[in-house]
Amino acid sequence: MPAAVATNKMRLFNSPAKHSTPLRKPIPKWVDKARVSGPSSIQEQARQLPIAKGKDALVREIRANDVTVLLGETGSGKTTQVPQYLLEAGLAESGLIGITQPRKVAAISLATRVSSEQGTFVGGRVGYAVRFDEKAGPDTRIKYMTDGMLTRELLGDPLLSKYAVIVIDEAHERTLRTDLLLANLKRILRKRNGDTRGKGKDKEKRNPLKVVIMSATLDAEKFSQFFYKADNIPSKYITALRARRTTSTPHCARSFQIHVDQPPGDVLIFLPGQEDIESLEKSVDLFARQLPIGQPEVIVVPMFASLPGSQLQRIFAATPRGKRKCILATNIAETSITIPGVRYVIDTGKSKEKRYLAGLTGGGLDTLMTRDITQSSAMQRAGRAGREGPGFCYRLYTEAAFNAMAPSAEPEIMRCSLAQAILQLLCLGQDIQELDLMDTPDVDAISSALRTLFLLGALDSHRELTPLGRAMASFPLEPQHARAVIASKDLACTAEVLDIVSILAASSKLFIDATDKRAEIAEARRALVHRAGDHLTLLNTVRAYRAAGADEDADENKEKVGRSARREWARAHFVNERTLKEAKAIREQLCVSCTRAGIDWKTSCGEREEPVLLSLAHGLAQNAALIAPDGSYKQIMGQSVVKIHPGSSMADRKVPAIIYDELVYTNQIYARGVSSISKSFFATLGAFNRREV
DNA sequence: TGGGGATTT
């Protein structure tokens, strides 16, 4: 460990336990009782969850109120049990029970769990709906889904009339989609449950809706206030369904004393970014080699989102007897990936945070900074220890530092680009400035997004949605990318633009960059690099991947051979196959959207590159810069001087003009996803000419 | 010369 970390004060926190004797701190007795009962049926386990005791009272409250806010920590069983209680109580007779989750994996695994508790198959009484995957049928009463999925349903059914109950889970995370849902639920409650109270007869005809908000942090009362204030929507705030208690004991230790002093169990260390992980990996390896004879061997495993899929197997592989796994992870291990066998968590208290700064002229800017985590994150990180037994969390900061942390993260709506959200709301006939949101974004962020939408042609000068804007909103893409797809129709290069845009819309990066293999990687990828820049390099890569093993695909029996040839190709070129697979699924969805919008997605421009770049430039008109006499690049719209990101194929190249996907400010303002474009292109862009309007 | 993490009929 770096000295700075090793000498910091640490705190010892007791974490949740399921069985066996706790290591240091006694586990509260009632938790013990709930967890120690030995092997039993899955239904029996459900009955023993802490929440089960409050079942009747809970159902009574939900029945009596339109909105119920439920505070309960992860593991209290609320997400799996509450929907079943409501089903049993007959609250799903007039419609579905929908439960939203911020993440796809959670929606799927919860549906699977609850299905088996109900003794049915997934897609029967209990189902789920996430992008690219839906298992729900006519018998489905309980549906787990991503919050994005329900937001999409809103566009087609503004009153969500299929649902009798909507449960918003993990509401404290305040994702953009959760916030948009909360605002719309308030509107729906007014419509479906009536403006005035006490007219019971009418109420039944109106198909009333029940809303349950679940939060894991103390700001739960804010949700209750949100629904009650102004509207007097009957809402109830129920406290503390605690599944675990986190107690703290001051504790100083050198970090690797865990390994020397503590019983077996893997160690999970939370760090801000890839750079920190790679440098600590070296230190830990060095430490491991200097261990006295007889000490167990240490296996160091890095973990961050851009790692290739093959690395993931190392994380989930069981630790051999007599060895100890030490996982160095970013925030990815906080919520999205659960690693079995972790008994000790070391929390540095830091994470990287992306924040969007709206620009008044030249689009926006993302900042990426290392910051202190929130108390909510700290508790989540601690909870990652001891999921299968007693566990411990060593916090590398003082209790005072913990108390100084923000209780929970600022809502996403306050720190992201609003262009896509505003466009979707306009399709619903809603104005973001009139919408009753829990937190209202800055007026600058709204004006900036409106300006972007205007430049893209989605809005006219009266802020009215144009037919082009409506067409853009029909794509599950950011407005800039949707604009590029639409532009590709007239430029006859839709196939190529879809290839590029689907990669840009994928969640992880296409290229894998290990610092220590830079020369090898450059050599392997040389044939893929296009001199016009990153967008056409992406296109080359997608095409080459598709071509690898394509011959075998003709024969059904050899399809497997084709798949393994592609996997091998991706590995050899340091390309993330997971990204390519995700992009393929996105592309298929985009083809459906194209057909609906009257765009022939098969139209290809072959090897011509100009139409592709011009289509992209229609979407990225605001993201353009010209070279200055001193060799730097200056934005066309906006005043920033931007530097081409070192990871770009255009780094160190001097061309007259560039377009880029985004600006990221770390130490300097870097343009990422850069292509060279002829200056004369801008003269042909209507958006560019309208920029002063 | 540098890359926290989710999500979309």
Strand content bin: 15-25%
Strands across the major sheet, in which order? Answer: 5-4-6-3-7-8-2-9
Terminal-residue CA separation: 56 Å
Rg estimate, integer Å: 27 Å
Q: Tally the structural domains.
A: 4
Structural class: alpha/beta
- List segments where confidence is low: pLDDT < 50 over at least 5 consecutive residues: 1-39, 239-255
Major sheet description? 8 strands, mixed
Strand segment count? 22
CATH fold call of the largest domain: Rossmann fold
Task: Write down the oligomeric state.
Answer: single chain
| SS field, number of helical segments | 28
What is the top-level CATH class of the largest domain?
Answer: Alpha Beta
Named CATH architecture of the largest domain: 3-Layer(aba) Sandwich
Shape: globular
CATH superfamily of the largest domain: P-loop containing nucleotide triphosphate hydrolases
- Binned, the helix content reads 25-40%
Calculate the mean pLDDT score and round it.
Answer: 83
Keywords: ATP-binding, Helicase, Hydrolase, Nucleotide-binding
Protein name: RNA helicase
EC number: 3.6.4.13
Pfam family, one: Helicase_C
